[in-house]
Amino acid sequence: LQSTVHEGIVGLSDCRVGIYLLLERIKDIVMAESATNSNALSAREIEWAKNSPELLEEHAAINKSIVRTRFPPEPNGYLHIGHAKSMNMNFRLAFEKLGVPEENRRTIFRYDDTNPDAESPEYIDSLRRDLEWLGWHPERTTFSSDNFQTLHDLAIKLIKKGLAYVCDMTKAEMEAQRDLAKRRSNARSVGNDPDVEAPIPSSDILPGRNRDTSVERNLELFQEMKLGLHDEGSMTLRLKMDFESPNPNMYDLVAYRIRYTPHPHAGKGWCIYPNYDFTHGICDSLERIDYSICTLEFETRREPYYWILWALDMYRPKVYEMSRLNLEYTVLSKRRLLKLVNSNRVRGWSDPRMPTISGLRRRGYTKEIINSFCNDVGATRAMNVVQMDKLFQAARMTLADTTRRAMAVMDPIKVVITNFADEASKAGDGGMTFEVQNSPTNEKLGSHTITLTETMFIDSTDFKMEDDSNFYRLTPGQPVGLKFQGGNLVCSEVVMDGDNVKELKCRLDCSESRPKPKSHITWVPSDSLPCEVRVYGHLFTAPEPTDLWEDELNPESEIVYKNGFVDPSVLDLVDRKDVNKWKSNQAFQFERIGYFVIDVDTTFESSTKSGKLVFNRTVSLKEDRAVKKISAAEEEAKEKQKEMQRTAAAARDLLMTIDPKDLFKLAPDYEGKFSQYDDTGLPTHSADGTELTKSARKKLEKERAKHKKKFAKSKK
To answer: How far is the C-alpha of 319 from the C-alpha of 72, rounded, in Å?
Structure first.
């Protein structure tokens, strides 16, 4: 390019023409050399990441014009909406960013299954089903565990090169080693002498008593580990990396550990298992991945990723980190989601409040909704929190033209029309039966009929005992229009059962002189189908759940209406034989209420009209705030949320008055938990006198460091 620019400038006879020709030439070169925009997914470069000409040539000969990504979830839980974003990136968006033609796009679905203690056949099956349901088609499905023998052989190769060794340090010793190496690195970073700031007490700690073991002895010990001659936790295979690196992930990572747990996919053939950091880069290289895409928390894993491939002289894919999906009012940590499931705070992994793919599907979110949402969110390196309304709006936009309409009441009030016979005799040929479009915007969905009966039901939210200028529906002094029938419903008498409205006696006013009603309400006839309706709200009261997330769970996240009714036109669409937890079930728009879907708890049989019929609310309709009536339960829930927010704010304010050295003595969260402290105020013993482990003290030190930063900031 520089040569072209030079030639263009030297050869200019006419400035304007020359510049034009020069720019055209540059454009031609850029277009020719950038059939794919390889810089679209570029990130921090590392020396170890450079491939030799031989490796590049070999990779190009195998992949040719193919560009390959991978989606590698660990089967230690169910996929959630964050994984949906990753799938969207790896199966579609990455290729679009790179400008790869569709015929050259390939994505591998890989089970990153190196931890048999956390994985199960249930999770393996659910991952496959969710990926297929979302509509993604991988080039092939692989398992990291299928490479166990290859990974083992490569580990031996590193031992023979003097780049791996068997280590018998305990977990506490490794933590002390890492802490010492980190403090020495911090000293170097500010120009201080590490031997003064963090002196090495013994070479047994740093670099470690096993680091200089001979190759022959390491091979023997690793073979003994493989044969099951040592206890779990007694030995590991570590990589001989760099204790002077500013990146703690380079502090001799563990490559293999002993686990006497059968593997859910590989079976009982192994008692040593490779760690994630050792495995995933090698599998990427073996599978000829071009772009290894992960989230930003793995950015510091870039060094070990490339160091391992450099040490083994294997092809190095490009690595790109994107921001993870952070969604309001939810958590996406598998550890937290697992705790919600195991503590029975939810109905399992597929609870409609859960952010899992199974939970979203059960709530009525289709693959089109989820993929549309992921397209809208996109993928960048910028950290942000996505508003839940964005997901809700994606649902409304998709369901509006594709969902069949029906009428339903969640909390019914019985209505008896006292002049029904007279009005029915005047109604003409159609009587009180009306044809209703299944969708006013999509004629292809057809129509159904609905019949007004002498006894019918309206929703309790459509009736109020007292007149209210802001309430536009039925009161004893205010008539309301009946949807589809068109007449006015006039309340003549209210029958009470204690403090509750038991029945309304009303009359129909179909006269031409009747007053124009302020609104029309929905209703269901006497032969409607009984149903249970579950209305879901946010799982948490806080938009961004904190470390106190369990205290921020929303007690009103599920409200169950057990005595609802849905109009009989849906009868043939709600049979239990058509309900399946692995597919999108029949969805409806309940007029004026929202979008709903049949739940998998349904046992209803259409032929006998027996069994339980259950609906879940997917999302509410857009509502006119001016006419919305807030129920007592909703008002109480709002007040509870405000009180929790005020309490949390007060606790934060109190915390900012506590000096970091007194944090564990004075902060309410730690009250009564510890009995002894060191000179800096760090706890050394729990309340019962048990000495805290080094790991526990390390976690507390991190908490104090966080508080120290916030405390200092609050004093500025």
So the answer is: 14
Q: Are 111 and 70 in contact (CB under 8 A)?
A: no
Tell me the C-alpha distance between 437 and 443, whole Å: 8
Options 226, 257, 334, 534, the catalytic residue: 334
CA atoms of 494 and 503, how far apart (whole Å)? 6
Q: What is the pLDDT of residues 433-467, one digit of tens each?
A: 999 999 998 999 999 999 999 999 999 999 999 99
β pairing state of 291-295 and 318-322: parallel
Calculate the CA 129 to chain-centre distance: 17
Question: Average pLDDT, stretch 517-521?
Answer: 96
Query: In Å, how far are 182, 214, 583 from 198, measured between CA atoms?
Result: 9, 29, 59
- Residue 609 annotated as catalytic: no
Q: Which of 25, 157, 178, 324 is catalytic?
A: 324
Q: Compute the average pLDDT of residues 351-374.
A: 98
From 68, 74, 301, 321, active-site residue:
74
Is the pLDDT at 60 greater than 60? The verdict is yes
Annotation marks residue 502 as catalytic: no
Q: Which residues pair with 402 in a beta bridge?
A: none
444 in catalytic set: no
Task: Give the DSSP H/E element, type plus range, for residue 405.
Answer: strand 404-406
- Give pLDDT tens digits for 130-145: 999 999 999 999 999 9
Q: How far apart are CA 40 and CA 69, in angstroms?
A: 14
Q: 302-312 vs 276-286: helix axis angle to the nearest 10? A: 60
553 strand-pairing partners: 540
